[in-house]
Write a structure and sequence with these properties.
Strand content: 35-45%
Largest sheet: 6 strands, antiparallel
Number of helices: 2
Number of domains: 1
Shape: globular
Oligomer: single chain
Length: about 100
């Protein structure tokens, strides 16, 4: 189990969730993100993963991923299932999101 160490609202529309394995999930629904809203309610979110304050490349072309809100809960569950080894976890989450 990869437990949450800390969850921080960086500013409105941006939250960082830090995990025991050293990875941080960044969740953005604010202005300037790739998220989309319908009637003011997010239907997609922009996510990024950091290790040691550096982006983990999530796809071959980008450091961020744009996912439907319906898949967001699955991503959060996956983050908690990742390896306790940071480098192995980085590979797992990249594979999961690509």
């Amino acid at each position: 189990m990869n437990n949450i160490v800390e969850s921080t609202e960086v500013h409105e529309g941006l939250c960082h969730v830090e995990y025991e394995n050293g990875l941080t999930l960044s969740i953005s629904t604010g202005p300037g993100s790739y998220s989309q809203k319908r009637h003011g309610i997010p239907v997609t979110v922009e996510v990024a993963v950091f290790a040691d304050n550096n982006f983990v490349a999530l796809t071959e072309w980008d450091d961020v991923a744009h996912i439907p809100i319906a898949e967001f809960e699955e991503l959060c569950a996956k983050m908690e299932e990742l390896s306790s080894d940071k480098f192995e976890a980085m590979l797992e989450i990249r594979h999961y999101l690509s």
